[in-house]
Prior knowledge:
The chain contains two helices and two strands; from the N terminus they run E-E-H-H. It has one domain (5-57). Helix content is 45%, strand content 18%.
Amino acid sequence: xxxxxxxxxxxxxxxxxxxxxxxxxxxxxxxxxxxxxxxxxxxxxxxxxxxxxxxxxxxxxx
Length: 62
């Protein structure tokens, strides 16, 4: 088991949560949060990268 990672279990011993020592595993927590945000946005409309680059290169009108 990794140091700084603890599992919280219910009365039957089934894992229900995890405690992470952020002093040791901040990067792991940040990666986990990034994945959660990405999954929450999965259904949002998206643009093709090539289309985005074209829009960014267009001169702005004054």
